[in-house]
Structure formats: C-alpha cells, structure tokens
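Q: Structure tokens for this one, please.
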Amino acid sequence: MADSIANLRQRLADAENLDRVRYLEAEGAKNYWSAWSEVPVLFPRKDARLVPSHWLKFGSRHSPITGGPRLTVNPPNALLNYAFALAESECRLALSMCGLDSGIGFIHLDTANRDSLALDLLETIRPSIEAWLLDWITREPLRRSDFFETGSGNCRLRSGICSQLSETAPTWGRLVAPWAEYVARTLLAGRSDLQGPATPLTQQRRIEAKGRVWTPRISSFKSEHLGPGCGKTIEDRSSECARCAVGTASKNMLDAARIGRLTANGPAAQKKRAIKARANALAQHSWKESDQPAWLTSDLFERKIQPLLAKASMFDIPRSARRALPALRSRRSSHVRPPPVRSWHVITNPLMVLTRTLRWPNFSRALHYPVKPAGGYYA
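A: Here is the predicted structure, written as tokens:
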C-alpha cells in the first residue's frame, strides 16, 4: 500500500491538468483508506456485546447510504467527520483573517454552499487529525452511550461527545494558521507594491521583529481515559475503576500465589533449603550438652528465665539474639514446653542485655550465678 501511494505521488509531477491531479489523489485515497478498514475499535466489555458488529472496526470510508463520507454508519467515521467539520470552520476563519475568500478554491471545485478554498486548506492538516483519531480509537475505548443510530442506519453523535470534540477546535486552528498565512503570502508574491501580508494568526513577523525565532506551539488534545470493563471515566494512572479492580485484584492474588508455589518448589528454593538443612544438621551433630554452663539447668530455665521472657518485647529478644522472630516467638510463652537444651544460651545471653536496657531489678541475683561463665555473660 505504501509503495502504491509513493508511486502515485511521483506521477503527480507529470500531471498535465487539475483533473489528472484529482484522479491521482482519489486513487491514493482509495489505497490509503483500505488500510484503515480492519482497524479495530475498542468498546468496554459491557458495551461490546450490545453494539452492531460493523461498529467494532473502522470499515469503509464510503457510507452505504450516500456512497461517500457523509451519513456514515459507524462511530469512528462519525468522529472523523465531526473533527473535519470543526477543522473546516477553523480553516474558514483563518482564511478570513488573512483577507482571502474561502469560496474560491484550487483543487476542490466551486459549488454552491461549499467553501472550496477552506477544503483545500483542510488538506494540509488532515494527516494530523487522522493520526489523532487513530491514536484515540486504538488506545481508549468508546462508550456506546455517546452514539445512536437513526432509522436509516446513520450513526450520529450525542451532545456529550460533541462537546468533548469541540475542545479540539483551537488545536486545529493553531495547526492551520501558518498554512493560511503561507497561502496568502504565495498569492501576493507577485505584487511589488506591497511589503508583504501580515501574520495576524501566528504573529510571526512581530516576533521576528523583536529578534526572536518564531516556533509553532501546539498542545495536543487529551481524550477521556475510560475503564475497559465498565466504560467509566478513570484517572490516567489507573487501568480500571475501583469496582472492576476487585475482580482483577483477586485474580492477580491467585496468580501470585501460584507463582509463589512454583518458585518455592523450584530447583533454586530446594537447593537453598538443602543447604540450610545441612548446616542445621551439622550444628546439631557438633553440639554437646557438656559444653553448657553448669548453672544453666532445666529447672532454672523454667522457674527463672522463662517468666522474665514474658515481660520482654516480642521484638527485643530476636534483635538481641540476632535470630528470626518466628524461631523465638514460642520460646517467650510460659505455656509451652521449654526449648531444646542447646538453644538455652541463645535466649539467656540476650536476656542479660535486656536486663540493662529494661533495668529489671535483681535479675542477676535471681539467676543465682555461682561463678561468672568463662568468656563473660555475653560471649
């Protein structure tokens, strides 16, 4: 399709008259719009099953009612027609500001009730309008409530979306302004008695007279961001409304749980568990009960140490012992059996640190240490 349009463009240089130019333009438009025919049109899920099937793609630019672009039968073509009508009005205003008659055209024939020069000028910004519409219909869903179908099958726009589209008029006016001034400047190029046409639309001559460089400043129109499920207006950073997000969040949680299970049973996780199990087995095998202090007995732990653990903060003990919280949570309670003998010193030594921090009275005296352990209480 692109090669065909490029070939037609090259043939324009050999066109002998305007009729030939119009023919080549029509052939290029035919190839161009054929590439649009299968472009999908998005609707919210609740609307997609209620709209006619020919509303779900761009379709033909020619309406089956009129054989031309007018009285179109689907929403995207209706949006394009309305945007072209807004841009045509801006072209008409721009030509009037430049002192030109919008009814005397060059390419479009002069007919009644039609401003041919405004349509000629519209051709300069049509690519921008079509690119804007293509980006809109492929990125954001359309609401079924914004359109209605007449008895003849003509698709029309409702007032809400018409008001929204009308906000694009200033953008089209700024786009066409330099082109309107270019047409006026070109038509007056052979007049030696005039200094040159003014630039009332862009103020280009005034800006350049002040020593500055004129650059076009055009802000793009921002359409509403709609939810793909319900079609409600949502924030730009959101992908769904609050109600629709509940179901999606539940599905995401299930997917995350499934991924977590697969990861936990994967080779890397199994290797990590095997390394920890091997280290724990080696620690158990190398532990000897004879290495424990003589004063640290089961009776002393149950009567003296475990009641004091109940007064300590749940987070102070693991922090002092440098152990994970779940591993020491059960050892704080007095309603469970004492921990293994080999882990008593892990709790007793941090408890000595907490004694100074919490200032528990007579703690050392309550333990009845006969002698100071070799290496100190905190070794």
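A few notes: The chain has 16 helices and two strands. Strands lie at 147-149, 155-157.
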